[in-house]
Design goal:
Order of helices and strands: HHHHEEEHHEHEHEEEEEEHHHH
Number of strands: 11
Number of helices: 12
Strand content: 15-25%
Radius of gyration: 23 Å
Distance between the termini: 75 Å
Structural class: alpha/beta
Helix content: 40-55%
Shape: elongated
């Protein structure tokens, strides 16, 4: 009798857990728990809302600078390369907040169950459009479709139009897409994809929105800052986004100063490439102060850097 009651209790506890596990979209509380390092503003769905001002500064960050900061913080797997691009001739950078989606090979019973569950939860239409319906301005649609090629194109002309309408941004899509000619007519739309294929999607199905996903060798959480350039894509934890910007700005300014002083003959390359002396550091700080109106980093950010320096 005691064993029967215990099993009944376990079953009662598991039923809501299993029901929640079947939901494609996690609750706000789940997303907050996944991204607990972020203590700033959040979207209604729980995703970290890194300020627009940080996203704007991030556009000038090089991948090498971001990679160095993240690796120094033990985030080893936040970069993925080997992409094909849409509209790279218009811009070489895309920055935004990740809305994640995960696709797996199609299985009929699970496909039906997830559709039923999603419709009951308020989603409408086919599952391919559900993440796109949730996009907000400044988002980047980050989707793992396990590199599918034939039978895998989830995104075509219609969905690309909807993605840009909702986000004013683009996609990082680990799979093939179709309708590339139509996509190229969407001014401002940007995409990092694996390949093109004329087929439609009959090989995979959506199983998760705004949960952790994998893009190649990178792990991505909802709300990560996406920094996409010609060479590849970096996924930056929200709590580290401002530090990445500050570090990159300082590195870029030091490089400008170093190149200038080498050309002038003030310092040798060997002096610039090693730890700077106190006199060189003072020279750099004075140069920043004297040229703050002419440098690529805004004056207020330079003043902030100067306040934080100890020499």
């Amino acid at each position: 009798m005691k064993r029967t009651l215990t099993l009944a209790l376990v079953a009662a506890l598991l039923v809501p857990a299993l029901a929640a596990a079947q939901a494609i979209t996690p609750s706000r509380e789940e997303v907050i728990a996944l991204t607990a390092d972020w203590d700033g503003e959040r979207f209604e769905d729980g995703r970290p809302k890194v300020p627009d001002a940080i996203l704007e500064r991030m556009k000038n960050v090089n991948l090498e600078e971001a990679w160095s900061v993240l690796r120094g913080k033990k985030f080893e797997w936040q970069f993925e390369g080997r992409w094909k691009h849409v509209h790279l001739d218009q811009t070489e950078t895309m920055v935004g907040r990740a809305l994640t989606a995960t696709f797996v090979p199609r299985r009929p019973d699970l496909d039906e169950a997830l559709t039923t569950k999603g419709h009951a939860g308020g989603h409408v239409g086919g599952r391919n459009s559900w993440p796109i319906d949730m996009l907000q301005s400044g988002d980047v649609y980050v989707a793992n479709a396990f590199g599918t090629y034939e039978g895998g194109p989830i995104i075509g002309g219609n969905l690309a139009t909807a993605i840009f309408k909702n986000s004013q941004n683009g996609v990082v899509f680990d799979g093939s897409v179709r309708d590339i000619a139509q996509m190229e007519t969407i001014t401002g739309f940007k995409a990092w994809v694996r390949d093109w294929h004329p087929s439609y999607n009959y090989d995979n199905m959506l199983v998760a929105i705004n949960r952790p996903t994998r893009i190649g060798e990178a792990t991505v959480l909802p709300g990560d800052v996406v920094l996409a350039k010609r060479e590849g894509v970096m996924f930056i934890p929200p709590a580290l986004a401002e530090e990445v910007c500050k570090t990159a700005e300082l590195v870029q300014l030091r490089d400008m100063f170093g190149f200038l002083r080498i050309k002038e003959g003030t310092y040798t390359p060997g002096q610039i490439d090693q730890r700077w002396s106190d006199e060189m550091e003072k020279d750099f700080s004075q140069w920043l102060n004297d040229h703050s109106d002419d440098l690529p980093v805004p004056k207020e950010q330079i003043q902030e850097l100067l306040k934080e320096r100890t020499w």
